[in-house]
Amino acid sequence: MPKIYLIDVTNRDGVQTARLGLSKLEKTMINLYLDEMGIFQSEFGFPTTRHEQRYLQANLELAKMGVIKHIVLGGWMRAIVEDVELAFKQVPTIKHLNLSISTSNQMIDGKFKGRKNKDDIIAEMTEALDAALAHGAESVGINAEDASRTDLDYLVKYGQAANAHGAARLRYCDTLGYDNPFSIYETARTLAQKVELPIELHCHGDLGMAVATSIAGAKGAIDGGQDAYINTTVNGIGERAGNADLVSVILAITKSKGFNEKYQLAGNIKLDKAWKLAQFASYAFGV
Predict the structure, then answer these.
(1) Which end of the chain, C or N, has fewer beta carbons within 10 A?
(2) φ, ψ for residue 146 (rounded to 5)?
(3) Per-residue buried b or exposed e for 69-93, using 16+ beta carbons within 10 Å of the residue's own CB
(4) Domain regions of the chain by residue span
(5) Could you say which DSSP state residue 68 is in?
(6) For the residues of 130-183, what is the DSSP string, one character each?
(7) pLDDT at 261 over 90
(8) β-strands 228-232, 264-265: how paired?
(9) Which residues pair with 8 in a beta bridge?
(10) Phi, psi of 219 (to 5 degrees)
(11) At 112, is the pLDDT very low, low, confident or very high (cuts 50, 70, 90)?
């Protein structure tokens, strides 16, 4: 039976919150607490950003030494070959990546002003994916930025191309918090069935539904026959109205009426460790 995995993005999306941030030591502590809690993966930073280089290398070394014991440490970057090359130059031991590029008409037109079309987007994504795997990446997730405003047929085509080139999963990004639990369920199920990759849900709370859309999307992915991955942040912190709160997602999966009878959370989550993580994150962010 497919399962639900948690990827916490506090150290990537959380630190993009306006007027907030974390020191490198604080980000390291977040990784340690997430590991202690049993979370599957931490999206721990930006391998293409020079000032993150030593922090990222140090955390990978902590994992190698066994200080960070189980959690997967993954980096985020744009889905362009130049970023992939720079990432492996600056952080050569990184093994897990998420590559992101815009897929909606609105964002493609707004960012590229007619210089790229949808076929160009797929070509750029697959070239970056090929480069990451050639450099020795063990898993590469492919992000569809603004997926909730992207035509479903194109998302399927985009995801199938990612699958053909060796992607580990497809991240469905509700970048502007536009989706709802009903529509995302159908979309995630269709993507799971037609793309034949695990579906990762990245939802924002602009309409107050980040947790609900994440859970519904995960249900859709599993009903479509694939594993689901949910992006969370500690205390729900994140850009604008925030992301899906880590503890709320865990409780929704494990405690809501009838849900955990069919949909299982992967790993050994230690909910009693959540208070320490939440308190530290509140202190570190100053909110």
Answers:
(1) N
(2) 65, 40
(3) eebbbbbbbbbbeebbebbbebbee
(4) 3-285
(5) S
(6) HHHHHTT-SEEEEEEETGGGS-HHHHHHHHHHHHHTT-SEEEEEETTS---HHH
(7) no
(8) unpaired
(9) 42, 232
(10) -60, -40
(11) confident
Q: Where are the beta strands (DSSP E) in the chain?
A: 3-8, 41-45, 72-78, 96-102, 139-145, 169-174, 199-203, 228-232, 264-265
The torsion of the CA quartet 152, 192, 117, 141, rounded to 10 degrees, works out to 140
How far is residue 69's CA from residue 92's CA, in Å, rounded to a whole number? 20
Whole-number Å distance between alpha carbons of 130 and 117: 20
Q: Which of 227, 211, 200, 226 is nearest to 97 (CA)?
A: 200
Contact partners, residue 196, CB within 8 Å, separation at least 6: 160, 163, 226
Condensed to tens digits (0 to 9), the pLDDT of residues 116-164 reads: 899 999 999 999 999 999 999 999 999 999 999 999 999 999 999 999 9
**Is 155 within 8 Å of 147 (Cβ atoms)?**
yes
Non-local (6+) Cβ contacts of 179 within 8 A are 148, 187, 203, 209, 213, 217
- Alpha-carbon separation of residue 79 from 62, 63, 100, 123, 192 (angstroms): 27, 26, 5, 10, 22
Taking a C-beta distance cutoff of 8 angstroms, is the pair 190, 154 a contact? no
- 3-285 adopts what CATH topology? TIM Barrel (3.20.20)
Cα–Cα distances (Å) from 137 to 130, 132, 219, in that order, read 10, 6, 29
CA 184 to chain centre: 16
